[in-house]
Design a protein that fits this description.
The chain has 13 helices and 14 strands. By secondary structure, it is an alpha/beta fold. Bound molecules: zinc ion (ZN).
């Protein structure tokens, strides 16, 4: 009964209006966004958001990594149910990535305030700092430092392209928002992140909502193939050692390995190439390329890792660059999200996330899952990012249903 009142109070028009307002902070000509983490635009957007939260009667905290916590009180001081995402963008990003989850969360708090419904647990909207990782690398600093505060000291030393450290940017945030009380990590009861899919699956299936089963893991490598640089006109073919030919010939073998292990589910990319001397009339003496392989099953990633070397040309060097294990979301939270889709009358499907999200880190802290809405043409990190208004509303309503359900749990 209460749940129905709350989801009926979720307003699509207000959600769109707030998304448009948020896009004025760091908006560029032509509709692109440039609101990088802890920039002045980010600070201005946060100041506006804090004002909105106060109007709803919410309490607001920040923490040592500049995460923002906006709490709608419950009937008890039990562990809160959290939702949220990020409001930093890529240097030429869209208006929805991250922002949608935060604005939809705010709309849920507004629906609660408008109906006067109080859940057993508090509900908190969180803005995680620097998810994108474009100004300060790596990404998801806010959520990862929240679940493991020992990471923060190292993050503070990271610098942006102008030599400003993340620590200095955090200090500027603390100065601008000195009125906000500081909080350390609070144990959450559950976390739900609502996000645009950033891929084409939901759109192609015609489903307005996706319940995310997990986030695929990734392995990055660099391969260095050696040859002998020599004159392109004078060296007979049988006498050549062409590093680029050797490198390109092994791509088919690597793809065959990925196909054997993962079939159509494989995600394999050779995105970065360096050829030396990179001259039109010299045989390549060295060819380096990157491999990005992703899968939801840790065993598949391990098998790929073990067999990859057998695909490479003789004498090639293989260097692992990065690895992240797959994340499986919590079955009980997934169950609530599936019920939410059904209860709000929306067709949904199970989907796997191909991109990283703050929820990946929260999953190690509390029961966590995600909801996706479709992305037009699967486009993201781009000013053309778009989701139909009725799908944005469907996601916000399903989120509201889920939050009330989770926050009434004992
Ligand atoms: Zn995002």
């Amino acid at each position: 009964m209460n749940t129905q009142r709350v989801i009926d109070a979720v307003s699509g028009a207000r959600l769109l209006q707030r998304l448009a307002q948020l896009a004025t902070y760091g908006g560029l000509e032509g509709g692109a966004m440039n609101r990088q983490a802890l920039s002045e635009h980010d600070f201005d957007a946060r100041a506006w958001l804090i004002g909105q939260a106060r109007q709803l009667g919410c309490r607001v905290w920040t923490d040592p990594c500049a995460n923002l916590f906006i709490r709608y009180d419950g009937d008890s001081e039990l562990a809160p149910v959290m939702t949220g995402s990020h409001i930093d963008t890529q240097p030429s990003g869209g208006r929805l990535d991250g922002c949608y989850g935060v604005m939809a969360g705010l709309e849920c708090l507004q629906a609660l305030a408008a109906t006067g419904v109080r859940t057993r647990r508090p509900i908190e909207l969180v803005v995680w700092t620097n998810e994108e990782g474009s100004r300060f690398s790596p990404g998801a600093m806010g959520s990862s430092a929240y679940v493991d505060p020992t990471r923060l000291a190292g993050y503070r030393r990271c610098q942006d392209a102008d030599g400003v450290s993340f620590g200095q940017a955090l200090d500027a945030h603390a100065h601008r928002f000195a009125h906000l009380p500081l909080r350390s990590t609070v144990q959450a009861h559950a976390f739900v992140e609502l996000h645009i899919e950033q891929g084409p699956v939901l759109e192609q299936a015609g489903n307005p909502l996706g319940v995310v089963s997990g986030i695929q893991g990734v392995r990055w490598y660099q391969v260095r193939c050696h040859g002998a640089p020599a004159h392109a006109g004078t060296t007979p073919m049988p006498l050549r050692r062409d590093a680029l030919l050797a490198a390109t010939a092994c791509l088919v073998r690597i793809d065959a390995l990925a196909q054997r292990l993962a079939g159509a589910d494989r995600r394999l990319t050779f995105g970065r190439w360096q050829v030396t001397p990179n001259s039109i009339n010299t045989i390549a003496g060295q060819a380096c390329f990157s491999i990005d392989f992703r899968h939801a099953d840790a065993a598949v990633l391990e098998a790929f890792d073990a067999e990859l070397v057998t695909c490479l040309p003789e004498g090639a060097e293989l260097e692992p660059l990065f690895s992240h294990a797959p994340t499986a979301f919590d079955p009980a939270v997934i169950d609530v999200l599936e019920q939410a889709c059904a209860a709000t009358g929306m067709a949904s499907q199970s989907i796997r996330s191909g991109a990283f999200h703050d929820a990946m880190y929260l999953a190690s802290h509390c029961p966590t899952a995600m909801l996706f809405v479709p992305s037009r043409d699967g486009v993201s990190h781009n000013p053309l990012e778009h989701t139909e208004p009725q799908h944005l509303l469907a996601g916000a309503r399903a989120l509201a249903w889920s939050l009330v359900q989770l926050a009434d749990q004992a």
